[in-house]
Amino acid sequence: MNDYLSNVKEKLNFIISDMANHHWLFANRPGHDFMRQNHGKLSFYDTMRLIIGMRKGNTNDEIMDYFDLDPARIPSLET
User: What beta strand segments (E) does 1-79 contain?
Assistant: First the structure.
């Protein structure tokens, strides 16, 4: 069973990676969307994985979980 699950995950990652190679086909503004990845923006691959893997948490918590960030080390405007 575990082999089946890892096979499904591997295929899903391959499909997302293939989609990322042709990301302009899935963008509202081809040639503009997902073009600033070297400026700290989320890549198409990371965006798809994040959306698919989201649970019931808020967006900030889900992003921190996805990138294994420590909430105590993230600057906040809250006092």
Answer: none
